[in-house]
Amino acid sequence: MNEVILDVKGVSKSFYRKEALHNVSMSVYKGEVFGLLGPNGAGKTTLIRIINRIIRPDEGSVRLNGDLMTDEHVRQIGYLPEERGLYRNMTVYDHLLFLGRLKGLSKSDADQKIDYWLDYFKINDWRKKRIEELSKGMAQKIQFVATVLHEPKLLILDEPFSGFDPVNVELIKATLMDLKSQGRTIILSTHNMKSVEEICDRAVLIHNARKIAEGRVSELQEERKSGVYAVKFRGNMIAFVNALWAGFEIVDKQELGDDRYLIRVKMRNDSTFDDLLGVLLGQVKIEAAWEELPGMQDVFIELVQPKTESNEA
């Protein structure tokens, strides 16, 4: 049985009579990467601030490892807010030391961990630079280091990839997977759906202050598949088309050159993948065949779009 590290039950919050969260519940399991998804204004940041005890809910509860959250529990959390905030006049080292001490590290422990992370990111030569001298991407790395410095059990990262070039996005993803392998739990709030597919185990989607979906990423995709299969083959296109019968419909086709094609086929009636392969074998040389699942971008749009109000971004 999966161990729940964070349990949110029936959380509601309003600001000046505008509902930001309505009866939201979710469970985050120990050692997983959990996606917190939703359009702008859905309530994600409000929920993150409630978990971090920056604001209090009007109703509901938040438990960490089975205990009602207190201010003391916040030390076990590493929080990277979307609105970055570093003291521009401090040096990189002084800033990291300051934040490490705030999270309860001794100076010697903080020094050791600062050395580790500056070496990890190969940025030791930034140690004496002032924050104001850093580029946006460089400052992002320092803020990330500050978030993980005290080895929190739970990481909450709000848009951690913004401001990074593609190379550094991949570096941060690899770092998160490494932290996961060490048993850390990560909540990832992001609009980068490709990253959700790549590294998130489960996800929750919040829209208009309400939870509208929660589950394994693969299940969210599986539930919304449309019965489309892709076949890459070498051979004669006419032979491929003639091999199909009323149980299949060609959705689109792509010529790859050298008598190679990529065809997307939709099943009709009770036709199965085995049926598709059965009619094609011996007619063309199949190089690959697979079921197409919707990307998380498509899942996101399908869940949100029907409910999107005209004034929402």
Q: Give a count of the beta strands, DSSP E runs of length 2 or more.
A: 14
Low-confidence runs? 307-313
Structural class by helix and strand composition: alpha/beta
Task: Indicate the proportion of strand residues.
Answer: 25-35%
CATH architecture verdict of the largest domain: 3-Layer(aba) Sandwich
* Rg (C-alpha, Å): 24 Å
CATH topology of the largest domain: the name is: Rossmann fold
In total, the number of domains comes to 2
Quaternary form: single chain
What separation lies between the terminal Cα atoms?
39 Å
Shape: globular
Count of DSSP-assigned helices: 10
CATH superfamily of the largest domain: P-loop containing nucleotide triphosphate hydrolases
Main β-sheet description:
6 strands, mixed
Helix residue percentage: 25-40%
What does the average pLDDT come to?
89
- Report the top-level CATH class of the largest domain: Alpha Beta
Helices and strands, in order, run as EEEHEEEHHHEHEHEEHEHEEHEH
Record the strand order, biggest sheet: 6-7-8-3-9-10
